[in-house]
Specification:
The protein has 461 residues and is an alpha+beta fold. The protein is built from 11 helices and 27 strands. The strands form 5 sheets. Strands 21, 22, 23, 24, 25, 26 and 27 form a 7-stranded antiparallel sheet that branches. Strands 1-2-3-6-5-4 form a 6-stranded antiparallel barrel. Strands 7-8-9-12-11-10 form a 6-stranded antiparallel barrel.
Length: 461
């Protein structure tokens, strides 16, 4: 028995010696290392060549005019308006007929958009539509021989995968930087309960001012995101860049092209994050799943049979990983009226429920006034009281504006109360639509803003 321990020790030593490679095996082959590096370099080159002709440089300008105030404090303009350069950014051609996707903040408040193509042509662009909640916009140019980029699936990206950020940083034409996917489903909101439709791919590929609106591409040269933001006190790349995922971009772009706005599906649930302890008890991965904490009575989730305490795992086959923003975005990928498949965890069993989505605007009581590019709701006595008015103000309360739309250009703001069209009063959206339909060209709209009353001239589309 005394010989057993030494025998075991000798056996272990023999195994360790056998695992030690011969001299020279650990030494790398310089030629092989160089070939690996060249192969990666060629992959970068092919991806950059694929996207090169599709990336554009965008310059914006806005009309400025001197403003003075009269005796009563009312503002009026003097002199002739002048165009002043206001900004620059990037974009990417997504359709050979001239559609270009970029960031909303690149084109916001611009009266003139100039697109410079990779071959040097400069063409004036028009705004198709913009979505403030995702910071995306679509513009259009009329030009021959355009090369459209191809979309990839951002959900197929893996953390650690190589990506390239393309754009015009600091105004320099066509610049390519490389990095990896650092994280997915990132939210820049500090409040996880805040309703937001923004989620981001995080990358360490350098993204600088001017890159906004340019594409983030995979090594196939496919668009997997639209560069949107950096986090840096110096406003230049610090290894923390963010791009809007392509699955979100495609949905928003399709809606903007079709209708000029984005109407999002609405499920009607209240949600909460799961704790690490809950996920371990339910045998879920970190960051997987969202708990349903309440159901809106009569809403889509209620009609589909969802219950308080259900855990949302998948929406239309896409995993719920990354928090409540991920759920909102997955739902918003479908339009009102469409049916989505919800995989839930209930009492230890995974089941699927189908829900027909409603319109968020309709449920909130908003009505679209398309000719003005705004959404509004009728004023009630309760709303008048809540806004601080001693007496009821009939009209429509502006709840949302389409960026660059007629109302936005005229200076109408969210929170304004619209009371009359060309001197004729209205109290419902249908009444206002009827009055607008009989108006030609420039229309005068009376508004109430706080304690002030006035009129604005709106050029209808």
């Amino acid at each position: 028995m005394n010989h057993v321990a030494p025998i075991r020790l000798i056996a272990v030593l023999c195994c360790l010696i056998a695992l030690v490679p011969p001299r020279g095996v650990l030494a790398s082959d310089p030629a092989q290392d160089l070939e690996y590096a060249n192969a990666l370099s060629r992959a970068f080159e092919r991806a950059a060549d694929t996207i090169e002709d599709s990336v554009v440089h965008i310059t914006t300008a806005a009309r400025t005019q001197r403003v003075r105030r009269d005796f009563f404090g009312r503002r009026y303009r003097v002199g002739r308006p002048r165009l002043q350069p206001t900004g620059l950014g990037s974009g990417v051609i997504i359709d050979e007929k001239g559609l270009i996707v970029t960031n909303r903040h690149v084109v916001a408040n611009a009266d003139k958009l100039i697109v410079r193509l990779h071959d040097g042509r400069e063409i004036e662009a028009s705004l198709v539509g913009a979505d403030e909640e995702t910071d995306l916009a679509v513009i259009r140019i009329d030009a021959p021989d355009l090369r459209a980029a191809t979309f990839g699936d951002s959900d197929a990206l893996r953390v650690g995968e190589w990506v390239l950020a393309v754009g015009s940083p600091f105004g320099f034409d066509y610049s390519v930087t490389s990095g990896i996917v650092s994280a997915k489903e990132r939210s820049l909101s500090r409040d996880p309960t805040e309703a937001s439709y923004q989620e981001f791919i995080q990358t360490d590929a350098p993204i600088n001012p001017g890159n906004s609106g340019g594409p983030l591409i995979n090594l196939k040269g496919e668009i997997v995101g639209i560069n949107a933001a950096i986090i840096s006190r110096a406003q230049q790349s610090a290894g923390l860049g963010f791009a809007i995922p392509s699955v979100v971009v495609r949905r928003v772009v399709d809606s903007l092209v079709q209708t000029g706005r984005v109407e999002r599906g609405y499920l009607g649930v209240y949600m909460a994050e799961l704790s690490p302890e809950q996920r371990r008890a339910l045998r879920l991965r970190p960051d997987e799943g969202i708990e349903v904490t309440g159901i809106e009575e009569g809403g889509p989730a209620d009609r589909a049979g969802l219950k308080e305490g259900d855990i949302l795992l998948r929406i239309n086959g896409r995993e719920v990983i990354g928090g409540m923003n991920r759920v909102r975005n997955l739902i918003s990928l479908s339009k009102p009226g469409e049916t989505i498949a919800l995989q839930i965890l209930r009492d230890g069993r995974r089941i699927v429920k189908n829900a027909e989505l409603s319109s968020r605007s309709a449920l909130l009581g908003y009505a679209e006034i398309e000719s003005l590019g705004l959404a509004a709701q009728p004023m009630t006595r309760e709303i008048s009281r809540r806004l601080g008015y001693r007496r009821h103000i009939p009209g429509l309360l502006v709840m949302r504006l389409a960026p660059g739309g007629p109302a936005d250009r005229a200076g109408i703001e969210v929170g304004d109360i619209l009371t009359a069209v060309d001197g004729r009063r209205f109290t419902t959206p249908d009444e206002m639509r009827d009055l607008l339909s009989s108006s030609l060209g420039v229309t005068t709209i009376e508004i109430v803003r706080g304690r002030m009353r006035g009129t604005v001239e709106v050029e209808l589309e």
